[in-house]
Amino acid sequence: MGSIIHRHRRRFQASSNSWAAVAAFIASLAGLICGCTDSADVSNTPANNELRIVSFSPALSRMLVDLGLEDSIVGRTPYCEFLDDSIAVVGDLLRVDYERLVDLEPTHVLIQASDKGVDSRLLDLCDEHGWKRTQWTSLNTIEDIESVLRDIPGVLFNDVDAQYADLSQRVAVMLNDIALALTPGGEMTWRGNVLVVYSTQPVGVFGRDTYLNDVLVRLGATNAVPLDGWPNLSLEDIVHLNPQAIVLVKPGTALDADTIELLGAVGELDIEATRSGRIATLRHPAAMLPSTGIIGTADELREILASWPNVDAALEESAP
Predict the structure, then answer these.
(1) Could you give the C-alpha distances from 235 to 8, 40, 79, 263, 268, in angstroms and in order?
(2) 294 φ, ψ (degrees, to nearest 5)
(3) CA atoms of 143 and 168, how far apart (whole Å)
(4) Which helix (H) or strand (E) holds 108?
(5) CA angle, 264 then 267 then 273, to 5°
(6) Tell me, what DSSP letter sits at residue 291?
(7) What's this model's pTM, rounded to 2 decimal places?
(8) Alpha carbon distance 315, 49 (integer Å)
(9) In terms of Cα–Cα distance, which of 13, 301, 309, 89 is closest to 181?
(10) The pairing of beta strand 53-56 with beta strand 73-76
(11) Strand pairing category for 203-205 and 132-136
């Protein structure tokens, strides 16, 4: 086991943010905050109080929608598929449709920066046209998600505006909903270790210092992977880890889909998870977005854990 951990730790130190690979897998996901934002030095409030937001991040778009701001979004990435089709696609951070972006006349441009940074032309356009630009550089954990939520009212409005107070109240409600969603299940709920898989070829998993790891731990279980980020594991690695349970994260999967079949070679391994039948698919549409979608994701994951009785608690309860 020590050699596995050492080998993968070196791999992830060499590529410190494997989230870029996950972002490609789910089509521009990403990383966000560290408590700091980088904003252009322009007024927060549009001249006519009309917000016109361009979002270069599915995660940020999800937050805006959940805060009741979808009507203010005028531009999006092609991966913000939950937004109305009438909202213009302006590309992503790799390929920006600059002509369309200028035509949209946004008041605010929200960016989830990648490892490679942000195209300087996009930054220059924001400065040239006086668009309020805000970018976050890390969105990996629940704390990151909560930090971005707290930032949003100040990004969009001045703190003396009525809109600021209203949006701040909605953020407070959302933060409370997140806290409630992350409440652990009952004593009988599974408390063992879980391998959380997001891809099967190669086998990509959620390690420590990720939002799904945070959800898992807050619900009372533990992560079977002793590594940070989003490592790729070999089948041999998984055998050595011998997880007690497996959750495959596959948004939108049909209810009648067979998880063992979806796992492919992983589902055929002789490990405790397959022997015990503690295998499930996490289907929530926002499960791969580090956003306010963790509320529904946490609810579904809690149901999964509750379907696997905590063996120790069950034995204790049945003891004479």
Answers:
(1) 14, 47, 31, 12, 10
(2) -65, -15
(3) 17
(4) strand 108-112
(5) 155
(6) S
(7) 0.81
(8) 62
(9) 301
(10) parallel
(11) unpaired
Answer for the pair 158, 164: CB distance below 8 angstroms, yes or no: yes
Bridge partners of 231? none
Per-residue pLDDT of the chain (320 residues), as tens digits, is 544 544 444 444 433 344 444 444 443 444 333 334 443 333 344 444 689 999 999 999 999 999 999 999 999 999 998 999 999 999 988 889 999 999 999 999 999 987 777 778 999 999 999 999 999 988 899 999 999 999 999 999 999 999 999 999 999 999 999 999 999 877 888 899 999 999 999 999 999 999 999 999 999 999 999 999 999 999 999 999 999 999 999 999 998 899 999 999 999 999 999 999 999 999 999 999 999 999 999 999 999 999 998 866 544 443 44
**Residue 93 carries which DSSP code?**
S
Q: Which residues contact 186 (CB under 8 A, 6 or more apart)?
A: 306
Domains identified in the chain and CATH numbers:
2-13+188-318 (3.40.50.1980), 31-43+50-181 (3.40.50.1980)
Please name the residues in contact with 103: beta carbons below 8 A apart, sequence gap of 6 or more. none
Strand partners, 247: 196, 280
46, 156, 200, 278 from 161: Cα distances, Å:
12, 10, 49, 51
CA gap 251, 29 in Å, rounded? 13
Q: Give the tokens for residue 63.
A: 């937050």
Q: HSE of 249 in the Cβ direction (CA atoms, 13 Å)?
A: 27
- Assess contact for 254 and 273: CB atoms under 8 A: no
d(CA 146, CA 162): 22
- Core vs surface per residue 209-234: b (16+ CB within 10 A) or e: ebbbbbbbbbbbbebbbebbbbbebe
CA gap 137, 259 in Å, rounded: 34
